Amino acid sequence: MEGSYRVGDALPTLEIPVTRTLIVAGAIASRDYQDVHHDAELAREKGSPDIFMNILTTNGLVGRYITDHFGPAAVLRRVAIRLGVPNYPGDLLRLTGRITTVDGGIRTYTDSENRIPIEGENHTLIEVAVAGDNRMGRHVTGKVTVTLPHDSCQPHQPHQPHRPHDARPL
After folding, report:
1. 3-state secondary structure the chain
2. Other beta carbons within 10 Å of 154
3. CB of 1 within 8 A of CB of 154?
4. Which of 7, 67, 78, 146 is most buried, judged by most C-beta within 10 A?
5. Would residue 30 be called left, alpha or beta, if left means φ above 0 and alpha means ψ between -120 and 50 degrees?
6. How far, in Å, CA of 170 to CA of 167, rounded?
7. pTM, whole model, 2 decimals?
8. 121 to each of 74, 100, 118, how far by Cα in Å?
9. What is the pLDDT along the chain (170 residues), one digit of tens a residue?
10. Burial tier of 68 (Cβ tally within 10 Å: 0-12, 13-18, 19+)
């Protein structure tokens, strides 16, 4: 079943509105109490036009992007990112990805540094090159390694909220 995902396949774009609340909540959740992530006045005193997102929040959003696409059986094995321009309140982060590796061998995998064994067999290892842009340019680039059990290697359809037939936009 690993044939369901192919090298070169593009993941759908995920757009995430960057709000002041997202920036502050992400910083607090990751215990990053640097004032540039929650205090606009102090951020300006340090030369930034506003508060900005921390790397741990970006890392979490990249992980969400991958697991939303590959589904609940997906296990993140490695997330390696590099930040570019900051994410400020009011930005729209657009995450994109392209599959660079699909390895469906039946064996036990380890991560790229051979430190973390993946328990069991019958897993497909998939690497995805990820990029995220906002109005200023490239916010994040990186590679994410995910594993899927062979029986879960059909492309996952993200959950779509149910909309009754008679529901109409206002």
Report:
1. CHHHCCCCCEEEEEEEECCHHHHHHHHHHCCCCCHHHCCHHHHHHCCCCCCCCCHHHHHHHHHHHHHHHHCCCCEEEEEEEEECCCCCCCCEEEEEEEEEEEECCCCCCECCCCCCECCCCCEEEEEEEEEEEECCEEEEEEEEEEEEEHHHCCCCCCCCCCCCCCCCCC
2. 12
3. yes
4. 146
5. alpha
6. 9
7. 0.80
8. 15, 22, 8
9. 334 899 999 999 999 999 999 999 999 999 988 898 998 999 999 999 999 999 999 999 999 999 999 999 999 999 999 999 999 999 999 999 999 999 876 544 455 555 455 555 578 999 999 999 999 999 999 999 999 987 655 555 554 433 333 433 43
10. middle
Length, in residues, of the chain:
170
Residue position matching structure tokens 């900051």: 86
